[in-house]
Amino acid sequence: MDNKQLIEEKIDYLKTMCKLKGMRVTPQRIEIYKQIANSCEHPDAETVYEAVKETMPNVSVDTVYRTLSSLEEMDMIFRVDNQLPKARFDADKRPHHHFICVKCNEVYDIFLEPNENVLLPKNAEKFGEIKDVNVQIRGICNKCLQEQINKQN
Amino acid sequence: MDNKQLIEEKIDYLKTMCKLKGMRVTPQRIEIYKQIANSCEHPDAETVYEAVKETMPNVSVDTVYRTLSSLEEMDMIFRVDNQLPKARFDADKRPHHHFICVKCNEVYDIFLEPNENVLLPKNAEKFGEIKDVNVQIRGICNKCLQEQINKQN
DNA sequence: TTCTAAATAAGAATTATTACTATTTAGATT
DNA sequence: AATCTAAATAGTAATAATTCTTATTTAGAA
Prior knowledge:
2 copies of one chain form a homodimer. By secondary structure, chain A is α+β, with helices and mostly antiparallel strands. Chain A has 5 helices and 5 strands, in the order ααααβββββα. Chain A has helices at residues 3-20, 27-38, 45-55, 61-73, 142-152, and strands at residues 78-80, 88-90, 97-101, 107-110, 128-141. In chain A, a hairpin with a 5-residue loop joins strand 3 (97-101) and strand 4. Chain A is globular. The interface between A and B is large, with 40 and 40 residues. Strand 5 (128-141) of chain A pairs antiparallel with strand 5 (128-141) of chain B, so a sheet runs across the interface. Chain A binds a DNA duplex through helix 4.
């Protein structure tokens, strides 16, 4: 199955979910979702807005923010936990962690090995009803490490 | 050792660290740090500001933000990874996770059992040089669960 | 005590996000 | 296919969190 087909499947799923939740299937929703689903860069709202404007020049900032929130509410996309000023979004539903570079703010997906599973601290359920676990590893990414080395020469 | 003494120790450590890093020991820095170190509520900047104003009515918002950033830079306090509009701060240097309530936004510390240790996904170091690992568990805290039950009756 | 760079207060500016309102449109109903 | 209506949108204003600017103050070295 090629990439185009994969995306079509995701869009179909979005349409199904919209109908299921009584939400309309609008071209804006599709385009905005496509941007997140197509990217592995965990884009922020502004990046999505700029990208969507390419094909829909009249799209409004408000629509992007509103749509991101509703896609999140329907579990189609997720917000990455971070310490950055802008929210970052992820459409990958497979459980995974994130490596966040403190230099360039790039967010990388860390997928678990087949035998690994997401840790859950023993004391966690004492605090309430758990919805999901989020793991971020902060550090300096290989790209930035290489740049540091290049500068030294 | 009582609580007052514990805090004095922490302040002494702050003073030492300031001197070590060539930073001045100002009453504002001490008060702001005290607020975080004294609290287990992971306060945001505004809360710290309001609290510091009690004893220092002329403290400025800017000083609070600037000081929080410098305390963070000197590893005296840490920012909690979250999806909330406000940054939340933590002065506890012991490795621990966070339970974040999606209803009331309260942040609880999850300390590990003696035999437990912080997970590190096998693939993590492939992405770069790791600085720290951050685990958030999102869910509904016991207090909010209880409130839900109360409402139903 | 003097001096100077660092830190601060006060308020303006910026950035990310959300709210408001008139208009458009998805999709249900005829 | 045409009509209708609530949901969604565009455009723009407003808000909220944080950062910047500048004149003044102060920690701590000399």
